[in-house]
From TrEMBL:
Species, as recorded: Allopseudospirillum japonicum
Superkingdom field: Bacteria
Co-factor(s): Zn(2+)
EC number of the protein: 3.4.11.2
GO MF entries: alanyl aminopeptidase activity; metallopeptidase activity; zinc ion binding
The protein's name in its UniProt record: Aminopeptidase N
SUPFAM superfamilies: Leukotriene A4 hydrolase N-terminal domain (SSF63737), Metalloproteases ('zincins'), catalytic domain (SSF55486)
GO annotation, biological process: proteolysis
Family in the record: Belongs to the peptidase M1 family.
PANTHER family: PUROMYCIN-SENSITIVE AMINOPEPTIDASE (PTHR46322:SF1)
């Protein structure tokens, strides 16, 4: 924990570094409790200042020397995490030696031990816990790293770059020295040491160089690396083909560790991964898990250009590398899987989780202008909304110009630390467009609302769309300016046939857009008029925001019939699906408001009933199971909740379940037949077609199990789920069945399967995470008692972030009924965990507290209870800057 009180840092105060650190030569004598780190740093003053201030946190200083001369005590000061050297020469070699304690490092920042493995996490500001340095991304240095360790405990010694020398010391310790030829900021430094095995492959780059690919894991995980390797090679090829980017070192290493705060880290040439994002095998990993490995492997690989070769000037620019890299990994995943469904999944997440963040006390711009703790800004806004911004740029420029602009960016700024403006300037230069208004996307927090009305005029055979845009106030930001919002759209006639778009411009000129066009909103209010609609007899149906062309909430007064037409006929897969979502929202929300407990489809939801009938009738012939599964899925609790200023927790859950039940009952034979039709004899493979089939199958199973409490269906659906649990050869099907059994109203259905699962997988940490999550999400209030008990389970540990996310995170974020139980017991329990975690892993504690910060969205009783817990946390002594910043923001509004 930082000894100084938390203070905000402002973008406007940015100052360029006054010293260059051209090279650093590191030596680590690894020891669990007393690792010695020696550094020789080549320092060069860039201006007149001769007072050098280096970052250093929790370091025991052993020695300091300038050009070989040890410093006297009055020549330096080490306090408040800063080492100040007075009167340094204009260029010199600084030698430092410090001692650190990896075993005592529970924050998982800097050098720490995960099981018996030494590893590092330096982004954002972890390097200062390893050695004195200018720990900021705009100081780039050449690194060499020598690792010395006991060969018994740490036979494998890895660091960035290429191995250049190795040997054995007289005392029996061995050493390896690594050299990274590319200057880099210290947040990309990494080392790993321990008892590891590796799987190897090679990749020949487009220019014909051969690269060694190595994935390093503990021996028992060797059989779980094939998918990561396959994904890595696909990502390398893809970045060459799509962006013309080639890998630059002779070796690319990935290491999987069990204790990791985030998903993975793009350290130069030596990625370190949360094992959950690297390891996969059919027995223990679901389809979703396989897809996550594929996308995270690609994400970290793509950072080699978008992040490492061209890096960030300061941490306010985080989205420069993260938003861009997420955009790149999403495009990769779209190419590897079904693009339409890939987009649906991205938007589902954005609209439920990022929109909620944008509407919360922790709302912030994609490029924040101040922060207390940068670790709190690795958010959905910076990553996912940041990716949407890059997507809009790519669409505004078109594929060719966007590629040219990216080429320009990579060439012009190679080896530099740059800003969001530098990136957008490349887009401007190539496209010859003024993107100054577009820049507001980076500065303004909050989700824009776009309201649209349509005016059909049969006399003039024209159709006018009137747009209004507004972005709500967010903490510290009012009076938002209009954004440049690209609306990709088309028009359909009442039968769903696409109409050619003839746009009448202000000049009176007519612009023919073909069957699809992009309207660029730039003003608070704006209208567009389409003409030449002589063939029509009634108003056309606008298909707006195709592909989710901008991260906004768009409303249009669609009739249910128009939505049904879009669902069935629109050419855009995303909008076909979204029309279904709109129809479901329009149907469910009045029922939620009325707090109904039972639904008569014919009476309460006639259009939705017809839509499901149509989908299920088509289902027999569909080639597109992925799309069908998406279309048949009801909006999630989180998405429904997002529609309400004050979230009616019980009513949403009640109506969702009632609708699921009604659809299950009405279409029971169809669900059963469709379920059976998806059962496959093929051996499991995590490829798109099979994944689609399983997702449809398990969606059908979900509907079947909605009838678990109805006497006439009970036995049959129980047997179907139990059979799937017993006979499936893969975790996707096994977990789907187990979850439904464990979540059935009769708790005894899940008892044996859960016990079987634990018996079989108790040695496998990642698999047991799933076991914890399944139980934490059982949708009944008494689940709180279960999770309290599970905290004591021998396989649980608060020290392991994956376990915390699996049990505590899942409970607070995916179990609304239990977490929000009106007694407040769920809130108090979460606060207890946050307080405990604050003491040893502030980053994780600060993430875990987020659900409590959303108190404004609940009714009074809950507000009071949630705030009381935030206040209790705030009153703790020794609150970390991480938790302090979040809790304070939440209580300030
Ligand atoms: N840069 C990492 C990524 O690819 C994010 C990350 C990994 C991170 N570990 C971290 C950020 C620890 C902060 C702290 O997205
Ligand atoms: Zn990243």
């Amino acid at each position: 924990m930082s000894s100084s009180p938390a203070q905000a840092i402002y973008l406007r105060n940015y100052q360029a570094p006054e010293f260059a650190l051209d090279a650093i030569d590191l030596t680590f004598e690894l020891d669990p409790q007393a690792t010695k780190v020696s550094a020789e740093i080549q320092v060069r003053a860039l201006g007149e200042n001769r007072c050098l201030v280096l970052d250093g946190q929790d370091l025991t200083l052993l020695s300091l020397a300038i050009d070989g001369r040890p410093l006297d005590a009055d020549e330096y000061q080490y306090q408040n995490d800063q080492l100040t050297l007075l009167n340094v020469p204009s260029a010199f070699c600084l030698s430092t030696q410090v001692e650190i304690n990896p075993q005592a490092n529970s924050a998982l920042e800097g050098l720490y031990l995960s099981n018996a493995l030494y590893c590092t996490q330096c982004e954002a500001e972890g390097f200062r816990r390893i050695s004195f340095f200018l720990d900021r991304p705009d100081v780039l240095s050449r690194f060499t790293t020598k690792l010395i360790a006991d060969p018994q405990h740490a036979p494998i010694l890895l660091a960035n770059g290429n191995p250049i020398a190795q040997g054995t010391l007289a005392d029996g310790r061995h050493w390896v020295q690594w050299q990274d030829p590319f200057p880099k900021p210290c947040y990309l430094f990494a080392l790993v040491a321990g008892d590891l095995v590796c799987i190897q492959d090679t990749f020949v780059t487009q220019s014909g160089r051969s690269v060694d690919l190595q994935i390093w894991v503990e021996a028992e995980n060797q059989h779980k690396c094939a998918h990561a390797m396959r994904s890595l090679k696909a990502a390398m090829r893809w970045d060459e083909e799509v962006y013309g980017r080639e890998y630059d070192l002779d070796i690319y290493m990935i290491v999987a560790v069990n204790d990791f705060n985030m998903g993975a880290m793009e350290n130069k040439g030596l990625n370190i991964f949360n094992s959950a994002c690297a390891l996969a095998d059919p027995q223990t990993t679901t389809d979703l898990g396989f897809q996550r490995v594929e996308s995270v492997i690609a994400h970290e690989y793509f950072h080699n250009w978008s992040g490492n070769r061209v890096t960030c000037r300061d941490w306010f620019q985080l989205s420069l590398k993260e938003g861009f890299t997420v955009y790149r990994d999403q495009a990769f995943s779209a190419d590897m899987n079904f693009a339409g469904v890939q987009r649906i999944e991205e938007v589902t997440m954005l609209r439920s989780a990022q929109f909620a963040e944008d509407a919360s006390p922790t709302a912030h711009p994609v490029r924040p202008d101040h922060y207390m703790e940068i670790n709190n800004f690795y958010t959905l806004t910076v990553y996912e909304k940041g990716a949407e911004i890059v997507r809009m740029l790519a669409n505004l420029l078109g594929p060719q110009a966007f590629r040219q602009a990216c080429d320009l960016y990579f060439t012009r700024f190679d080896g530099q630390a740059v800003t969001v403006e530098d990136f957008v300037a490349c887009m401007e230069e190539i496209s010859q467009r003024d993107l100054s208004q577009f820049m507001r996307w980076y500065h303004q927090a909050g989700t824009p609302h776009v309201q649209v009305q349509g005016q059909y005029c049969p006399q003039t055979a024209s159709y006018r769309l009137d747009f209004q845009q507004a972005t709500p106030d967010t903490p510290g930001q009012t009076n938002k300016q209009p954004l440049l919002i690209p609306i990709t759209m088309g028009l359909l006639d009442a039968q769903g046939r696409p109409l050619p778009l003839k746009l009448k411009l202000a000049s009176g000129e007519i612009q023919a857009l073909g069957l699809q066009g992009v309207l660029e909103l730039t003003q608070a209010q704006q209208s567009f008029e389409f003409i030449g609609l002589e063939e029509l007899t009634e108003a056309p149906i606008p298909s707006l925001l195709r592909g989710f062309s901008a991260p906004v909430k768009l409303s249009f007064p669609y009739t249910p019939t128009q939505l049904a037409t879009l669902m069935a006929q629109d050419t855009d897969a995303f909008n076909r699906w979204d029309a279904g979502q709109r129809l479901a929202l329009d149907t469910l929300m009045p029922l939620i408001d009325a707090q109904v407990t039972q639904i008569d489809l014919a009476q309460d939801a006639p259009m939705l009933l017809e839509a499901y009938r149509a989908l299920l009738t088509e289902a027999e012939h569909t080639q597109d199971q992925a799309m069908l599964a998406s279309m048949l899925r009801l909006p999630s609790f989180a998405y429904l909740a997002e529609q309400y200023a004050c979230i009616p927790v019980e009513a949403i859950e009640q109506v969702r379940q009632a609708m699921r039940f009604a659809l299950a009952r009405t279409f029971y034979p169809q669900w059963k037949a469709l379920y059976q039709a998806q059962i496959s004899q093929q051996a499991y493979a995590p490829e798109a077609t099979q994944i689609a089939q399983r997702s449809l199958k398990n969606l059908c199973l979900d509907y079947l199990l909605a009838l678990a409490a109805v006497p006439e269906y009970q036995q049959e659906v129980y047997q179907i789920a139990l059979t799937q649990w017993r006979t499936s050869d893969n975790m996707t099907d096994a977990r789907a069945a187990l979850t439904l059994l464990a979540h059935a109203p009769d708790a005894s259905w899940g008892r044996d399967p859960l016990a079987e699962f634990a018996q079989r997988w108790q040695q496998d940490a990642l698999t047991m995470d799933q076991w914890f999550s399944i139980q934490a999400t059982r949708p009944y209030a008494d689940t709180l008692q279960q999770v309290q008990n599970l905290l004591q389970h021998p396989n649980f540990s608060l020290k392991n972030p994956n376990k915390v996310r699996a049990l505590i995170g899942a409970f607070a974020q995916q179990n609304p009924l239990a977490f929000h139980q009106i007694s407040g017991a769920g809130y108090a329990w979460l606060a207890d965990q946050v307080i405990e975690l604050n003491g040893f892993n502030p980053q994780i504690a600060a993430r875990l507290v987020i659900p409590l910060t959303r108190w404004q969205r609940y009714q009074d009783t809950r507000q009071t209870l949630m705030r009381a817990q935030l206040e209790r946390i705030q009153a703790q002594a020794n609150l970390s800057a991480d938790v302090y910043e979040i809790v304070t923001k939440a209580l300030q509004v």
